């Protein structure tokens, strides 16, 4: 047992810090720090910057152009990137689709799609959830019927994050209706420029058009876009979800949020003194900080045990539940810290036009983050589903 | 002891509920929310005709109610239907202060408010004040030319649609002294009064207000110079009751929507409501709802008594905690659909959460309860 970093790890942290100091555009980090939405170009720009340094595909093997970082390296990057308010890495191509292609895709598919993920030529989005298939994903109904060299796809996907920016979507589709729900699902790659693909924005409760409905009407998809075998898609989907979970605890997000919360509490007035000096509020901040310190170690411990690039099992569900709880608690405290300034819809509104009246605490974005992050305990397998997984593992066969 | 509504209040409650069920659809609410005015003048007139505003003032003030029980009945219905219009701000908050302190001329404004012809907003909070009530840095200085106001006010709800603002400003005393705070009626078109408006997260609009050399005649002062503190505290107490009742109504709707959804939405081949883990959470929400109702009753029942502020703080501290739980649980048990702006629950959840940011949040009232209990 040794909690200290090795010489190499410390040197790596210095590298990451220097890199961020040199390459992170201050205007972009300011937007991240204050919870404003990034443009597509800003997100792509950050990917390109990381790619130039060889740090974009952090958990990919070197043979595919990845950085092949250890769990500790990934954690160090995450921590430093959060501290510096770097944009998040958009995960859909890099850490969701890519591991599936590496494990189950053909050589042709790997050679075709992986380099385009790295270069940013393709922006992928995820076609999993449907209006009738949320927690119960296996009940999905989007149909793909073979017609010569194509599949013809009909159905509707929903909650497609940043689908408005994507040119490619990986979809779970039903190719067999005569078997158990899990056994008739296939994994298809669909070009969003194909006729019959329609993206409709969904405005979330915080006002952001972040997710979309994707309607598929007689969409013809070449059979070479089938990943692996027909009707084996559920296996690949589960594999993808476990990889999605390597960053599932969101420790970096939590740390960035905690730093921002502390800044707010030092600025906000409470009966003539900084709010950070108020024992009640200070205790609330301390409570989440203590939880986060333990979570950071759980995260490292669990990822290290799973091995480099591999995904943990039931512990991932634990990390998701605890990580989202902590992050939501931090968002909640930030909203409370700013008092009545939590009420404006978005700080952009206050700062608009000539901006003679700055919102002193930049609070609009705080409420937006609070509202928006109610989603994190719902998506990627709702926390109730995660608890079912944990309970099934703990009690299965003994009930 | 009797917890039944009087016949008059029951009738008001029934009438208002029928009117809102008939008129106040989601479509109408969404129109009002996206309207730059932040309210519907038509609905406002109809509410006034129904006597909704008159019920918030006593007979001496030209109304026919004005007690805690009247406030609670009206606002529970407004909250249940998700009414966006600023009844609280114009009638209870600003109207209450004018009724409390106004001279005969100023009282005429109350008649106009009751008739639905006038909006007034309270401009009291300041950018640095957070929930600290006596934190007033705005200055009022009187000389031969009149009274000059200088300073800034924050998050003034419904300022743009109001014909008058009631502005608090300091004529004496130090930063956090109660003594020395005066209240002034300022017509919105007064030179030197600058508003910068914005939409609120849950309903309506508010504005940042700059007072840059606003000059008033002494008749525009409400009550005695430097003695506005008591009226402010009283208006805040009455408004807190209104806010709690509104939140109670909104929580009722959120719970009902959640129960309906759990029995309708099917996953894994059965209704979500058949999962025991969710059943227990619904049960806990309903238990908390009863606590919330009793807390509101405690507050309204002490509105005119000596223990008013401690009771208000106890209730508001609890309501903030329960509101957060019910809003968050309703969203979580709905799942993704509740994250969308067009789904009604999102509106109710935001109102419940934002209700905690008005008139002191749950932590503010927890500490105030401790202070007042020790006193």
> How would you name the CATH homologous superfamily of the largest domain in chain B?
Butyryl-CoA Dehydrogenase, subunit A, domain 3
Order of strands in the sheet with the most strands of chain A? 1-4-5-8
| Number of helical segments with 4 or more residues of chain A | 13
What is the CATH T-level topology of the largest domain in chain A? Butyryl-CoA Dehydrogenase, subunit A, domain 3
| Helical/strand content category of chain A | alpha+beta
Task: Output the helix-strand order of chain B.
Answer: HHHHHHEEEEEEEEHEEHHHH
Task: Report the CATH topology name of the largest domain in chain B.
Answer: Butyryl-CoA Dehydrogenase, subunit A, domain 3
Radius of gyration computed on alpha carbons of chain A: 22 Å
Q: What is the CATH architecture assignment of the largest domain in chain A? A: Up-down Bundle
Average predicted confidence as pLDDT of chain B? 96
Total beta strands of chain A: 10
Tell the overall outline of chain A.
Answer: globular
Distance between the termini of chain A: 36 Å
How large is the radius of gyration of chain B? 21 Å
Total number of β-strand segments of chain B? 10
Distance, first to last CA of chain B: 28 Å
Short note summarizing the structure:
Chain A has 399 residues and is α+β, with helices and mostly antiparallel strands.
Can you tell me about this structure?
The complex is a heterodimer of chains A (399) and B (375). By secondary structure, chain A is of the alpha+beta class. Chain A folds into 3 domains: 7-89, Acyl-CoA dehydrogenase/oxidase, N-terminal domain (Butyryl-Coa Dehydrogenase, subunit A, domain 1); 99-231, Beta Barrel (Butyryl-CoA Dehydrogenase, subunit A, domain 2), CATH 2.40.110.10; 248-395, Up-down Bundle (Butyryl-CoA Dehydrogenase, subunit A, domain 3). Chain A contains 13 helices and 10 strands. In chain A, the strands form 3 sheets. Chain A has a 4-stranded mixed sheet. Chain A is globular. The model of chain A is unreliable at 347-358 (pLDDT under 50). With 375 residues, chain B is α+β, with helices and mostly antiparallel strands. Chain B has 3 domains: 7-118, Butyryl-Coa Dehydrogenase, subunit A, domain 1 (Orthogonal Bundle), CATH 1.10.540.10; 121-227, Butyryl-CoA Dehydrogenase, subunit A, domain 2; 230-374, Up-down Bundle (Butyryl-CoA Dehydrogenase, subunit A, domain 3), CATH 1.20.140. Chain B has helices at 7-23, 26-34, 41-50, 68-81, 87-101, 104-114, 229-264, 276-301, 308-334, 344-355, 362-374; strands spanning 120-123, 139-143, 146-157, 164-170, 181-187, 193-199, 205-216, 221-222, 266-267, 270-271. In chain B, the strands form 3 sheets. Chain B has a 4-stranded mixed sheet, covered by helices on one side. A 4-stranded antiparallel sheet of chain B has the order 2-3-7-6, with no helix packed on it. In chain B, a hairpin with a 2-residue loop joins strand 2 and strand 3. The longest helix of chain B has 36 residues, at 229-264. Chain B is globular. The two termini of chain B are 28 Å apart. At the A-B interface, strand 9, helix 9, helix 10, helix 12 and helix 13 of A face strand 3, strand 6, strand 7, helix 9 and helix 10 of B.
